[in-house]
Amino acid sequence: MGDETTPPKGQSLNTVSEDNGVTDRRSSSNRGCLRFGCLVAFGGFLLVTVASGLSVVILPLFELPWRLATGWWSFLRRWQTAGGSIVWSDVVFAAALVLILIVGGHSSARWIARSRGFDRWKLHSTARSVVAVLMVSVAGIALLGVAHQVFWMATSQSRMTHSTGHEIRGRMQAGNYLRGIALALHEHNGVHLEFPPGGTFRADGTPMHSWVTLLLPLWHEETGGLADRIDLHSPWTSDVNRPAMQQSVPLLNVHSQGPAHTADGYATSHFAANSYVFRPNLAFTEHDVSDGLANTIFLGDVRFRHKAWGDPTNTRDPALGVNRSADGFGSNFAGGTHFLMGDGSVRFLSDRTAPEVLQAMATPDGGEDVDVNARPHRLRNPK
Predict the structure, then answer these.
(1) pLDDT in tens, 104-133
(2) Which residues are CB-neighbours of 2 under 8 A, at least 6 positions away?
(3) Helix H segments across the chain?
């Protein structure tokens, strides 16, 4: 009869038992590392989910998991669109560090294993251990990022998500308000045979009044006769004009587009004029826009650094791009922003529109051929 426990020829039963014990310990150690890595990953995901859920009062049930699962992809697309590029020298450096960690860790593990009676330590065990260490490090960095974002969401006026209802309402409101401003601009042109300047200034450079102030008489009912309370012969920041400048103008404040007042208490405008067309102390006519009113930008949405509607410097350069500069045009609406053209039409231009195309649409008499679908050039270090 054969004995299943009989050791191979030349090997004692004690040796076989020791080998089995070593194998069992190594298997147990590997399973422990795997369980620990899974526990860290699950704990990190659970913390992200709980922290994000607590940071928003009302959030659709399925929106949060979807954004957690796919948000990184949309971020990478926006980063790439903005001109981001991979620095391969950093990638090679990181790979070299990982390789050094594996080689050094494997050598150390083999030395420890031999000092404790193990005959050998396999490379795949070192690789699993290194992966576990990297997972713990990444989880720690991610937790710091989550804590930072939770604090930002708790203290910022910006919303974490853009629900469909808010998006539709905001876009419709912005478009309608721009059309209302267009009617006032063309009515001003009909009465005075010219469009208002971007702002008025004294000879010594003292800022006086903005293009909005010159339109106020056309919004007498909407503003409660606000124009009658403004002294056009005094600067807009003077004491006599300050109370009027603190009053909001309905057509200039879009839902969720920004603050209603500046830090100094002046009512803001969520729109700005095109600096190529609305210039200081210089009114213009339709004949000055030789590129055509339908092809020339007059106004646009503003996302950051909102100025008071009475500020005569409330103009911006469209060539800075859409949602690319805090001093340029932009909006909180996904994918782009609104622009009012000279003929009164409103266009929603993508944030991928090339700045050179926007500049061509901004100049009133440049004679450029415009391709709105042109994409921006990739910049290594955009500013």
Answers:
(1) 877 877 777 777 776 677 777 777 777 888
(2) none
(3) 13-55, 63-81, 88-115, 123-155, 164-192, 220-223, 242-245, 355-362
Q: How many CB atoms lie under 10 A from the CB of residue 199?
A: 26
Residue 81 is which amino acid? T
Share of the chain above pLDDT 70, in %: 70
Is 347 in contact with 318 (CB distance < 8 Å)?
no
**Residue from 309, 305, 312 nearest 326 by CA:** 305
- The residues facing 338 across adjacent strands are 348
What are 25-69's pLDDT values in tens digits?
A: 556 666 666 676 677 777 777 776 666 555 554 555 566 666 667
Orientation angle between helical segments 63-81 and 13-55, nearest 10 degrees: 90
Report the alpha-carbon distance of residue 227 to residue 231 in Å, rounded.
9
Instruction: Return the amino acid letter for 193.
Output: L
